[in-house]
Amino acid sequence: MKNHKKPEQGNSDTQKNISRRLLQVSFSVIITAAILLVSAGRFNLIYLWVYIVTSLLVIIINSLIFPSELISERGRKKENVEKWDRIITGIMIFPGLIIYLIAGLDIRFGWSPGYPIWIHISGFIAFIAGNAFVSWAMISNNYFSTSVRIQYDRGHTVSSGGPYQYIRHPGYVGMIVYLLATPILLGSLWALIPAVLTAVLFIVRTAFEDKTLKKKLEGYKEYSEKVKYRLMPGIW
User: Fold this and answer.
1) DSSP codes of every residue in 167-190
2) Can you give the residue ranges of every domain in the chain?
3) Topology of the domain comprising 7-226
4) Were 159 and a residue from 6, 87, 116, 141 both cysteine, which residue would form a disulfide, CB within 3.0 to 4.6 Å?
């Protein structure tokens, strides 16, 4: 006999997972904000606070518009995660954090030349656009997880709506865009180095994930024959 969870227990687990996920993303903003502010050695720079406040607003808006099952999946303790994904995501943590450390030090010591306000605004627009594209991808894919795994426990199926009509991994496109936009928003040329490195790791992760989905997720191979490109239409 199958061991079905009682509805009350399932609801309790969902709420715990949602709370865990909201704490995770809030803590990540706090950590990056702390790295930025401490390394910059100042608290009165408008671009720092634009980044911090916008990041918090993204969390609040997403928590209101995302389905509870999606947030719960992103907050739960994962099973059957691909081993290669644990390695790649583990490596990505370091350049991802170094972006904020270098940006802060750049602000403190003035390594980059001063940029006109339109460059900062362009970075801000790209940052918003990248986050919005990620949110669109997540709303369109109820199986959008923090780890690469086939979600047998949730009846994992192929998502082909929204931006998935045009590229197979739109979430990664949005992440790459806002990662590269962050140094521009903050006015740090040198912080683009770890940002580009992180973007390259996202491309590597995309290649491995695509291969895994073709092999293990029913219907994905057929989907990939219909939607030809992974990240960039006409290129790859």
Assistant:
1) -S-HHHHHHHHHHHHHHHHHT-ST
2) 7-226
3) Four Helix Bundle (Hemerythrin (Met), subunit A) (1.20.120)
4) 141
- Assess contact for 143 and 184: CB atoms under 8 A: no
Mean pLDDT score, 36-50: 90
Mean pLDDT rounded to a whole number for the chain: 89
pLDDT score at 167: 95
97-111 CB burial, b ≥16 within 10 A, e <16 = bbbbbbbbbbbeeee
Q: Enter the tokens of residue 149.
A: 């795994």
Interval 20-35: pLDDT, tens? 888 888 899 899 999 9
C-alpha distance from residue 153 to each of 2, 101, 217 (Å): 13, 39, 13
Report how far apart, in Å, the C-alpha atoms of 121 and of each of 108, 135, 208 are.
21, 21, 34
